Amino acid sequence: MTEPLIEAVNVAKELGSGAAKVAALKGGELTLLMGPSGSGKTTLLSILGCMLTPNEGSVRVRGNPTDGAGPEELALLRREHVGFVFQSFHLFPTLSAADNVRLALDVRGEPWRAAKLRSREALRKVGLADRIKAFPRELSGGEQQRVAIARAIVGNPSVILADEPTAALDGENGRAIMKILAEIAREQGHAVLIVTHDPRLLPFADRIVHIEDGRITGEESGEAKLQ
Questions:
Q1: How far is CA 99 from CA 89, 133, 154, 161, 163, in A?
Q2: Residue (of 139, 126, 44) closest to 95 by Cα position
Q3: Torsion of CA 181, 182, 188, 191, to 10 degrees
Q4: Is 160 helix (H, G, I), strand (E, B) or coil?
Q5: What is the largest CA-CA distance in the chain?
Q6: What is the spatial distance between Cα 72 and Cα 74, in angstroms, rounded to a whole number?
Q7: DSSP per-residue letters across 114-150
Q8: SS3 state of residue 157
Q9: What b/e sequence results for 72-90 when a residue is b if at least 16 CB atoms lie within 10 Å of its CB, and e otherwise?
Q10: Per-residue tens of pLDDT for the chain, all 227 residues
C-alpha cells in the first residue's frame, strides 16, 4: 500500500507536553510507540485517532485531512477508519460478548442480522467462538481483552490504535493478545499502533517509535531488537 493510512506532521498539543512528529502508519505493520509515563504517548494516540485535535500541525487519515474538521466529520473518520483497544477493556457489563462487539456496528447503522453475524465472526477470529453469550464478569482478563479486540476489528478499520493493551494482563495472556494484534497487522493488512512502556512487547514490533517529553526522539526497526 503506497498511501499512508495515518500521517501526522509537526503535531503539537498544549497538554503540558511539547511538539511531536510521527512517521506515517502503513498497512502490514505493527508499530510500538514507547516512552515513560507522561511522555505524551496517549495524547498522540488520541490525536491520531481523531479524539483530540492538535493545536498545531496536520493529521491525515486515509488521505483525508482533519484540519478544520468538525465533531461530526471527526466521528465519521473514527467510525470508518479507526478501531480502538484500551487497557481497561471498556466493555458494558450488562451485555454479552457478542452484544459488546455488535455495538460497534450499531453506531454505523448496520442491519441487526448482519451485525449479529459479523460480531460472531469477529469473536471467532480472536478465539472466542464458544464465549459469545458470556458476560464480562464471566470472562478472564485475557478473554475480555479479546472481546475488545473483536469490537475494534469488526468494522474492518484501516488502523487499530491500542493504549497499553497488555498492562492489565499477566505475561501469558499478554503474549496471546500481542499475537492476535500482530496477526491482524500482518495477515489482514491493517496498521496497528500500540502505546506501551513494556519492553516485553518488543519482539512483536515491525517498527518502534520512541517518545519523551512530547517529542519523538527516535525510530528503529523492530527486527533489530530480535537479533
A1: 14, 8, 12, 21, 23
A2: 139
A3: 80
A4: strand
A5: 49
A6: 5
A7: HHHHHHHHHHHHTT-GGGTT--GGGS-HHHHHHHHHH
A8: coil
A9: eebeebbbebbbbbbbebe
A10: 457 888 888 788 765 555 555 657 888 899 999 988 888 888 888 888 988 888 888 888 888 888 888 889 989 989 889 999 998 999 999 999 999 999 999 988 899 999 999 999 999 999 999 999 999 999 999 999 999 999 999 999 989 999 999 998 999 999 999 999 999 998 766 899 999 988 899 999 999 999 888 888 888 988 634 43
pTM of the model: 0.90
Closest CA to 45 of 33, 63, 28: 33
Could you tell me the three cell numbers for 53?
A: 485535535
What is the distance of C-alpha 148 from the center of its chain?
Answer: 10
Place of cell 493545536: 55
